[in-house]
Model the fold of this input.
Amino acid sequence: MQVYQYIVIIALAVMASSVFTSIEIPILKHRQFQQFIREEGPKSHKKKEGTPTMGGIAIYASICLVSMIGTSLTRDMGILLIFGALYGLIGFADDFIKVTQKHNLGLRAWQKLLFQIVLGVGFGYYVVKYTNLGTNVWVPFIDKDVDFGMWFIPFVAFVIVAVANSVNLTDGLDGLCAGVTAIVAFGFALIADGFSAFPSGVYCLAIVGSCIGFMFFNKFPAQVFMGDTGSMALGGGLAAAVILTKAELMIPFVGLVFVVEALSVIIQVIGFKTTGKRLFRMAPIHHHFELGGMKETSVVKMFWVFAAICCVAGLLIMKI
Done:
């Protein structure tokens, strides 16, 4: 893609997301779709309770609109849009239960995981059956395709589930998830361009602009949260786009922030169950820094910078 195409797609997404979010906020307030803060969370977050949630609806509406404007609606693009929406529906169900029952517990963990795995397996089947990608996975450093054979579909399901939940875990501070996702998606848009995966590139650029537009309302102090509706749609859709790019193994590099967030939770749980001690003040790790005395805005900016560094490192690995 040409530079002007990047600018146009991102600009359109910023405008669409800003408009959709500004329209959605009064509706969410009227419906009393508001955030309920978990008791075990940072005490400073109690003041956030009552903030409208499910703003992810506006984000994904923008992604869909701009993706369809930015390219012809090919089969791959259609599947990407549908798949992201289905993952968003899992998050929507979770958010809806929370706001209607007026507590911070939605779907059970096993229910969410089951739906996520089923969709992930379905997407893996689509890749094998209806694309020319086959069961090969491109491996960085050696720059070769490796045939995963019968393990390809489980691998795809794992990647999607892991990314979606990692993005979800990152959504814990005002502007954190939207900012990090925009940065990571831009990195993968460049990678998709390098791999000539045009639908994935446009989709990722739509994510970039939509997250930026949403941040006008989600930056500290947030007027609206994306909720699981947004984080699940963003994570699932982004992972699917990366898979169609054949850059799955670049996720630990370009998306290292998401990996660190997820690992901090895993380490915290395992450490506490085995030793009775917590390695971090609180997990995910962004809360560790927050409880250590850093301002919320400082933590967010630090993670943005770290995400940008990881993206540059990933692109250097790709030699793009």
Remarks:
- The longest helix spans residues 3-30.
- Strands lie at 136-139, 144-147.
